[in-house]
Amino acid sequence: MLPPFAAGIFLAAPMAAIMSTINAQLLQSSATIIKDLYLNIRPDQMQNETRLKRMSAVITLVLGALLLLAAWKPPEMIIWLNLLAFGGLEAVFLWPLVLGLYWERANAKGALSAMIVGGVLYAVLATLNIQYLGFHPIVPSLLLSLLAFLVGNRFGTSVPQATVLTTDK
């Protein structure tokens, strides 16, 4: 058991790290929205600093409010989002990574086919809560993603293997 002063310091440190991280992510998100979306659509507004500052403040406020609403009931929502995100990442990237590393005939068209089929199928199955033959949505997504990789791979060309330089004589 720590004395109250020491406990306060030990509790303040992680809270400060959390607040700093959220602050940085909010600022980065609003800057990304303004620079990558708004200024690409309206490049003439790049010199209008007061408007950009106002927009940055409003976007940061809106994003903060959305995050506050999302944090209102964290356990169920965070777990659902986490499972959906990791399942989606697995459905999109498993076969392009594994086959891209270990199969010398893998190519970009096969990888892109697998990524599109895996991601779209997982999103549809998970969103509509469809369990094909009682399996979790990741199972049919991975199987069809593999099939899409193999079919898409037929339409692409393999990149020639790079010459490996060695120091052996």
TrEMBL record:
<dbReference type="Pfam" id="PF00474">
    <property type="entry name" value="SSF"/>
</dbReference>
<feature type="transmembrane region" description="Helical">
    <location>
        <begin position="134"/>
        <end position="152"/>
    </location>
</feature>
<feature type="transmembrane region" description="Helical">
    <location>
        <begin position="110"/>
        <end position="128"/>
    </location>
</feature>
<keyword id="KW-1133">Transmembrane helix</keyword>
<dbReference type="GO" id="GO:0015233">
    <property type="term" value="F:pantothenate transmembrane transporter activity"/>
</dbReference>
<comment type="similarity">
    <text>Belongs to the sodium:solute symporter (SSF) (TC 2.A.21) family.</text>
</comment>
<keyword id="KW-0739">Sodium transport</keyword>
<keyword id="KW-0812">Transmembrane</keyword>
<keyword id="KW-0406">Ion transport</keyword>
<keyword id="KW-0915">Sodium</keyword>
<feature type="transmembrane region" description="Helical">
    <location>
        <begin position="78"/>
        <end position="103"/>
    </location>
</feature>
<dbReference type="InterPro" id="IPR038377">
    <property type="entry name" value="Na/Glc_symporter_sf"/>
</dbReference>
<dbReference type="GO" id="GO:0006814">
    <property type="term" value="P:sodium ion transport"/>
</dbReference>
<feature type="transmembrane region" description="Helical">
    <location>
        <begin position="6"/>
        <end position="34"/>
    </location>
</feature>
<dbReference type="InterPro" id="IPR018212">
    <property type="entry name" value="Na/solute_symporter_CS"/>
</dbReference>
<keyword id="KW-1003">Cell membrane</keyword>
<dbReference type="InterPro" id="IPR050277">
    <property type="entry name" value="Sodium:Solute_Symporter"/>
</dbReference>
<keyword id="KW-0472">Membrane</keyword>
<protein>
    <submittedName>
        <fullName>Sodium/panthothenate symporter</fullName>
    </submittedName>
</protein>
<keyword id="KW-0813">Transport</keyword>
<feature type="transmembrane region" description="Helical">
    <location>
        <begin position="55"/>
        <end position="72"/>
    </location>
</feature>
<dbReference type="GO" id="GO:0015293">
    <property type="term" value="F:symporter activity"/>
</dbReference>
<keyword id="KW-0769">Symport</keyword>
<dbReference type="GO" id="GO:0005886">
    <property type="term" value="C:plasma membrane"/>
</dbReference>
<dbReference type="InterPro" id="IPR001734">
    <property type="entry name" value="Na/solute_symporter"/>
</dbReference>
